[in-house]
Amino acid sequence: SRVQFENLITAISTEFIHLAPEDLDSGIKEVLKKIGKIAGADHSAVFLFKNDHGSNAHEWCARGIPSIKDKMQNVPIRSFPWSMDKLSQGENIRIQRVQDLPPEARAEKEFLQDLRLKSFVAVPMVLHNSLIGFLGFDSTRREKAWSERTLTLLKIVGEIFVNALERKRSEQGLEESETKYRALFEGVPVGLYRTSPEGR
What we know:
This protein has helices spanning 2-17, 24-39, 81-88, 106-114, 148-187; strands at residues 43-50, 53-61, 75-76, 93-95, 119-127, 130-139. By secondary structure, the chain is α+β, with helices and mostly antiparallel strands. A hairpin with a 2-residue loop joins β5 and β6 (130-139).
């Protein structure tokens, strides 16, 4: 499966370079599905932060596994200092058995148990040295151990997602600026003209 994983990441990297912004959401979901199957996960998700809250932006569920996306919207990230401290320092989170979480991770333990998760991993997604979210995988049917090699590969996927999301945000910002400029230009109630430096 490691070779499959590495080949998939190579394909993802090439594909996402040419992926149109409007196809990004479906592209991320397809990648979550492929990686989730190879990694033997029940859920995989991209969780993004905004204004001290986090939301499940993209999710894949294995066959027969219910979605938890609705429960993962506008979650106050300050409620989970143990995990946020690790992610903020660029550390992966690897929980083979939720029951074994330390006392300082009591909030995380209660939250994951409420979601009926038995094992969980997350890798930080970082843009310009700022944590913007994480890529997470979990198991609900049985306890699972993910290798350090798998987490390293997942981190690469997270970086690919970050670059693609930033490119989409930049392109959307440019489109919004062009729209505002066009509206301003067309709405001015006086005649406008452009001249060259030579006065033409």
